[in-house]
Amino acid sequence: MRKALVILAAVTLVVAFTVPAVALEHEFGGYWRTRAYMNKDFDGTGTEANDVSQVDTRTRLYYTAVFSENFKFVNKFEFNNTWGDTEGGDIGADGDVFTVKNSYVDFNLSALNFKVGTQGTVLARGFFFDDDFSGLIATYKGETFTAPFIWMKAYEGGEGEDMNDEDLDYYAIAPSFKLGTLSLNPYLILVQSSEASAAFDELSLTYIGADLDAKLGDVSWWLTAISESGDSGSDDVSAMLFAIGASMPLGPVGIHAQVIYATGDDDPADTDREDFFVPAGQSYYWSEIMGYGIFDYQASAGSPADQISNLLAYNIGVSFEPMEKVTITADLWNASLREDDAAGNDDLGTEIDLTLTYAILDNLNLDIVAAKLWAGDATGDGSEDPTEIGMQLSFSF
Prior knowledge:
A hairpin with a 2-residue loop joins strand 13 and strand 14. The protein has one helix spanning 2-17; strands spanning 25-40, 52-68, 71-82, 98-109, 112-123, 129-141, 145-155, 168-173, 176-179, 182-193, 203-216, 219-232, 235-250, 253-262, 272-273, 311-323, 326-336, 347-361, 364-375, 387-396. The protein is mainly β. It is built from one helix and 20 strands.
């Protein structure tokens, strides 16, 4: 940790002292969490092979050099360790755990904004992408809409006459429109590679979809629909994903619900591929045990976790504040595979999640979580039901 902080300080000082002081402002921010958690019987075998009980810490520090209202240099750094490991969590606390999450320039040219470098973005609420990448986002900003063009370099093949064939690129156009209480975000995304990897001789995928958010009276709605088509090697791809959710207050209680549906492949041996998939970067968290939740160390056996595919999941939940600064949330999930697994099973099970959030101080929160999955036949041998308990202390600034 000491080495990482020295590196961060050096980078900051170099930037600060190589630019005239009158032309530069500094913005600092960050995020910190420490969590203690236990996962039990997640592997579905009843052998405790993947049981875990541990404490880990994540620190993120943000530094932005603001040259003007039209030009910024943005950096985000991350340090991770598990208490007691040899990567910064053991006695002495020295470890090689420093990571550069983001480093990019953010500048405006008239109505166009450019972000160039390693950065993060979200597409389709994470059903398509929620991660960091190296590339470009160029956004036209109108009065009632924005229109970004996104290029992600997912994989660089390297040098050589044929190495460009292994490049994997994402291209997206994703305008957003605001119409009163309704927001619409349609998108067209292309994923292209002549020879992406050993798994894909060639890859040409097209995703067409939209996100819709609306407020109707006291009810807030959201919807995401995506159609996937194209070629994956010798396979013809035809898949879809649909998700819908709503929330509303009901007296002192808030009610929320959602449904997630993604197609699966009914016959992996044929040349028609019907499972919804993204080569890399997809991440949508849902339930605590089946869908990662707060403690995202692992998901229960058989579940797609955050890479939504071959899934039908239902959720209903409530939240309320029994006292000032305390919120209790209860969620019920039921999930199944759309197409049977190799053993002919499809039931992932029914899960209940309980979360208590306490705002200890301004920006300092404590989350306490307990979850249990009554496992279905697609989660394992049924001898044990997965359980999770944990707590997380976090703040941001």
